[in-house]
Amino acid sequence: MPDNSALILRLLILATFGGLLHLLLRRIIPAFAPVVVGRNRDDLRFCLKPPGASTASSPRPSSATPFPPRANGELILLVDDEASVRNLLTTVLLNHGYEVIIARDGAEGVAVFSEHKDRVALIITDIFMPKNNGRSFVDLIRPLRPDIRVLFMSGLEANGSGRDPGRKSSSDPFLLKPFKPAALLNTIHQVLHPDSTKA
């Protein structure tokens, strides 16, 4: 019996310590809401949407560049051949309140856009990709939706200028990789809500 009492006492101490540790970690580390993932008809395309509980404003890291207002569930098509880039940008966009559909290259981007062309508010695409680069991909998309807004991005720049390495005459906005989340979100906000950025 003494052994059983000692064991019960140890278990109670461990349970108490575990509960206190859990409460402490919940205060230090913010809880991250899980991302709801819904598969489309094949294994290559995913439609990602933040759960309803995640619509409340979340604390944002301090930054020299302020974040724009939260999104209202606008649908963004993200096209990039690098999985790590897709995953990172998708997380940033979802956490800010956007819905995201993804494609791995221009050819897949055309198929995904065709399925959701009436809902897509913005296309974010890398310029240099296999199977239709970003420029040729957008050339194929524009006849379907001439009004579609496009944000190009690339890790390559022309002559170290920081400008779009694509067509000189393009009026579409461009971001040079790597960029900070605030820069991405502010650029998207300016593209989708140009009137709100006017002084």
Automatic annotation (TrEMBL):
4-aspartylphosphate PTM sites in chain numbering: D126
Domain of life per record: Bacteria
Chain ranges of the Response regulatory domain: 75-192
UniProtKB keywords: Membrane, Phosphoprotein, Transmembrane, Transmembrane helix
Membrane-traversing stretches: 6-25
Originating organism: Oleiharenicola lentus
Family matches, as Pfam families: Response_reg
GO terms, biological process: phosphorelay signal transduction system
Name by which UniProt lists this protein: Response regulator
Family matches, as InterPro entries: Bact_response_regulator (IPR050595), CheY-like_superfamily (IPR011006), Sig_transdc_resp-reg_receiver (IPR001789)
